[in-house]
Write a structure and sequence with these properties.
disordered N terminus, 6-stranded mixed β-sheet, disordered C terminus, 7 helices, alpha/beta, 10 strands
C-alpha cells in the first residue's frame, strides 16, 4: 500500500522532458568519478518536478546536463522528443549564487540582455517584457537600481524574473534559496508558487531539503547517495506551505527520509522510478 498519501506517479503520454538511462561522470586529477548511474524520469508540461537527494548524489549535475552544459556518458536527454546537445533559450537556469547578475547593468538591463541577445527582441520589446516580468516578482520599482544595492532575496527575484522573461520550455533552478535566511527562503517559496500559478511554467528544481521538496514540488524524484540512482518517484501536490508542521506533512517527510537514508543497501539499486507500495 502507498504510505502517508505519497502515491506513485503513473506514466503519461508525451512528456515534455525525458531523461532516459542517463549516467554522468566528471574527472578529478586522479580518476573519473561517476555522479549518476542510469537515471530515468519524465517531466510533463506544467510539472513542478523536484530532484531530491543528499549532497553528492549528482542532482545538480543532472540539472546541468538537462541545461546542455554536461554531456551524458550513457543514456539520452530529450526535450519534446529531440536530443539535448547544447545549452539553449528553451532551458534557463537560476543558480544558487547571488552574483549571477552583471553588476554594471541595472535590474531592467539585466533582464533585457538575454532577450536582446538570445531572443532577438528590439529594445522596446525587450524592455516591455522585462518590466512585465519584474512586475510579477514585485521589483518594478527597482528597475533602475544596480545589483549591489539589492538584498540577496531581491537579487534572486531578479534572476527569476530574467529567466521567466525568456519564456523557457523548462525553468531549471539549482538550490536557488539555499543561501537565504529561513524567513526570506519561505517568502521566496511563496513567490515561486504564486508565479507558477500565474504563468504555469514547467519547473525542474534541485534541493537537498525534504521540507522544501514537499512544498515546492508536485512530483519528487528521490536519488540515492553517490552515485545518484533513482530510489522512488512520488506525488506531493497535496502539500503546501500552510501544511508544514501538520501530522501528514511530518509523516511524509519522515517517510522520504527513510527512503533516502534508511533502506538496506540491496534496495538502493533500482535505476528507474519504482513504487513506494509494499516497501
Amino acid at each position: 500500500m502507498a504510505m502517508h498519501n505519497l502515491r506513485v506517479v503513473s506514466d503519461r503520454a508525451a512528456p515534455l522532458l525525458q531523461v532516459d538511462g542517463v549516467s554522468l561522470e566528471y574527472r578529478t586529477p586522479d580518476r573519473i568519478v561517476r555522479a549518476t548511474h542510469r537515471v530515468s524520469f519524465d517531466v510533463q508540461a506544467g510539472d513542478r518536478f523536484v530532484l531530491l537527494g543528499p549532497s553528492g548524489c549528482g542532482k545538480s549535475t543532472l540539472l546541468k546536463a538537462v541545461a546542455g552544459f554536461v554531456p551524458p556518458c550513457e543514456g539520452e536527454i530529450r526535450l519534446e522528443g529531440r536530443g539535448v546537445q547544447q545549452p539553449g533559450p528553451d532551458r534557463i537556469v537560476v543558480f544558487q549564487e547571488f552574483d549571477q547578475l552583471p553588476p554594471w547593468k541595472t535590474v531592467v538591463q539585466n533582464v533585457m540582455f538575454p532577450l536582446r541577445q538570445a531572443r532577438g527582441l528590439s529594445r522596446a520589446e525587450a524592455r516591455e517584457r522585462a518590466m512585465d516580468s519584474l512586475e510579477k516578482v514585485r521589483l518594478a520599482d527597482f528597475a533602475d537600481a544596480y545589483p549591489h544595492t539589492l538584498s540577496g532575496g531581491m537579487k534572486q527575484r531578479v534572476a527569476i524574473a530574467r529567466a521567466l522573461a525568456m519564456r523557457p520550455k523548462v525553468l531549471l533552478m539549482d538550490e536557488p534559496f539555499a543561501a537565504l535566511d529561513a524567513l526570506t527562503r519561505r517568502r521566496m517559496q511563496e513567490e515561486l508558487l504564486a508565479l507558477w500559478d500565474d504563468a504555469g511554467f514547467t519547473l525542474l528544481f534541485v534541493t537537498h531539503s525534504i521540507q522544501e521538496a514537499l512544498v515546492v514540488g508536485s512530483r519528487i524524484l528521490l536519488l540515492s547517495p553517490h552515485p545518484g540512482r533513482v530510489r522512488a518517484e512520488l506525488n506531493s501536490q497535496q502539500f503546501t506551505l500552510a501544511s508544514q508542521g501538520g501530522a501528514e506533512f511530518q509523516a511524509a517527510a519522515q517517510r522520504i527520509h527513510t527512503l533516502l537514508f534508511g533502506a538496506p543497501a540491496a534496495e538502493a539499486q533500482p535505476q528507474r522510478a519504482r513504487s513506494v507500495a509494499g516497501r
